[in-house]
Amino acid sequence: PNALDDDDEDEGHTVVATARGIFNSNGGVLSSIETGVSIIIPQGAIPESVEQEIYFKVCRDNSILPPLDKEKGETLLSPLVMCGPHGLKFLKPVELRLPHCDPKTWQNKSLPGDPNYLVGANCVSVLIDHF
Which residue numbers delimit the ZU5 domain (predicted)? Predict the structure, then answer.
């Protein structure tokens, strides 16, 4: 069975884009051009002689979002992204790059106390070592 077609996982979600690929120790990039979401896999993140399927789904799901107060100017800045396969661990962190829609105030900032996040002009990068 294909993990991307798992209906249980998509219950309550509207999947707007999917991407998947097979990667090895050379690394690579998995991206969704239409959404701007990408995963950058560095060389050595996947063990030698392993071919690993990696996928993500970009979803729209208002049911699991925290309540947003539009009167205070709160807004969702990036899409919901589900990465898999669940439980996959990397030897080196991979970069999950998410677009955001507020380049004026978020440009080139990092979150305090955590070097694993970087906010650029039009994307947020998060370094993660597992799904």
Answer: 17-131
Rounded Cα distance, 62 and 76, in Å: 10
Q: Which 3-state string (H, E, C) describes the chain?
A: CCHHHCCCCCCCCEEEEEEEEEECCCCEEEEECCCCEEEEECCCCCCCCCCEEEEEEEEECHHHCCCCCHHHCCCCCCCEEEEECCCCEEEEEEEEEEECCCHHHHCCECCCCCCCEEECCCEEEEEEEEC
Q: What is the pLDDT of residue 64?
A: 55
First to last CA, the chain: 19
Please write the tens of the pLDDT for every residue from 18-65: 999 999 999 999 999 999 999 999 999 999 999 999 999 998 765 555
